Amino acid sequence: MSATENFNSKITIYVIVCWILAASGGLMFGYDIGISGGVTAMDDFLIEFFPKVHERKLHAKENNYCKYDNQYLQLFTSSLYLAAIFASFVASKVCTKFGRKPTILVASSFFLAGAALSAGAKKIWMLIVGRILLGMGVGFGNEAVPLFLSEIAPVKYRGAVNILFQLLVTVGILIANIVNYLTSMVHPYGWRISLGLAGVPACILFIGSIVITETPTSLIERGKDVAGKKILKQIRGVEDVDAEFEQIKFASDIASQVKHPFKELMKLSSMPQLIIAVMLQVFQQFTGINAIMFYSPVLFQTVGFKNNASLLSAVITGIVNVLSTLVSIVLVDKAGRRKLLLQACVQMFISQVIIGAILQSQLQTTGSLGKTSAIMVVVFVCAFVMAFAWSWGPLGWLIPSEIFPLETRTAGFAFAVSSNMFFTFLIAQVFLSMLCHMRAGIFFFFAAWILFMGFFALFLLPETKNVPIDVMLERVWKQHRIWRRFMVDADEGNKNSGANVA
């Protein structure tokens, strides 16, 4: 079977609607990321649930770096991601057995329940359970949505379509920052409005999960060839889809021989994809992005901004985040994945070092930065966010969704999602404590990680632009000077199955 990118297709209104509605899972995820940091900076919220933190915050001589150091406060943010680790593996099974569409529906249901409980919370345990329900939604949504987008997109637009998920993540963060800025002036229940409004993107995703189609790949994988071909014609907008259908069918036939995909992932030939998928998640978090996104209002208060000014600064970084993600949509299928990642490493490294240097030299345990220095911190935070938003942010989800063969796709992506959630949880749980103990050194810590991941991208990350998903083995892994050494058992498997993929 010969592989080609030139499958017949044209963009239809229906498929665009499917892309946007499915990608609204990113809107929900982004809102969850952005809302918690602003809420934890609101006095009314702290007075009701964390009075000791509020008292510490009020002390004029309190250590600038330690006034928010509280494990329960951090657990409010991080519990969501702990739940998502478990949920992603359950979602992998649901995705394979029932399809991408039902998995997205389950995600939206968890989101709705979590938003309602969080907004009505009277006790800390209610807050935490609400966040756990939201985390279950994140686990299901982040497993299904990127796979859905990669499988439904034409190959030449796959990168741009998949990045719609990350674009709506950034839009969700921006909306959350704007909401927090406005509700911070509504006393004493503004924080409830912030948490409750998570129900809006949850409703959009719920409705979207009903409207969207199932992916042809999922239908064919589950033996529904006629329905799969019909949907393929519908989303491609043409009748002649035989070549693409046969490629999906061929990949599905190979996948059907694999009864234990998680066991298959442990084979030598699966290691390159698994290593890259997991390491991209580790690196994505150890850039320090979520430390900044979760706690940007807290961070800006630390360097001397007042409460409203810090929330407004978070809105500015949110706008930068959205606009820069648009850059990635334009460039990812032209410049390729590796160039964007490598360029961003340079920009992020410089930004983190400069932020660390400013804080190290000028922010003492008491007092605040001068106005010029504080503005410089905001500028370089924006430069950092800008670079991340067109590179490691969207590509951290795109690349794992496109590199696994069908037989291990949902299982492999579950490892990627769970790894992302674990390290997001880790950063969310320890960042305020790290800020307290490492002070400005925390930015040098993240800068060192950025340097390391730049070398990883340079030497170990292959380029995957314009390569059909189902021929990655032949076109990418067997051609890479390092990873091709891992492909021995893949060759043996192909001989045993009589496959001949060109």
Describe the fold and architecture.
- It is a single chain.
- The chain has 502 residues and is mostly helical.
- It has one domain (13-497): Growth Hormone, Chain: A (Up-down Bundle).
- It is built from 23 helices and no strands.
- The longest helix is centred in the last third of the chain and has 30 residues, at 409-438.
- It is globular.
- Residues 495-502 have low confidence and may be disordered.
Features:
globular, disordered C terminus, Growth Hormone, Chain: A, 0% strand, mainly alpha, 502 residues
The succession of helices and strands, N to C, reads HHHHHHHHHHHHHHHHHHHHHHH
Counting DSSP E segments of at least 2 residues, the number of strands comes to 0
Percent of sequence in beta strands: under 5%
Task: Tell me the number of helical segments per DSSP (H or I, 4 or more residues long).
Answer: 23
CATH class: Mainly Alpha
User: In angstroms, what is the radius of gyration?
Assistant: 23 Å
Given the C-alpha coordinates, what overall shape results? globular
**Which segments are poorly predicted (pLDDT under 50) over 5 or more consecutive residues?**
495-502
Q: What fold name goes in the CATH topology slot? A: Growth Hormone, Chain: A
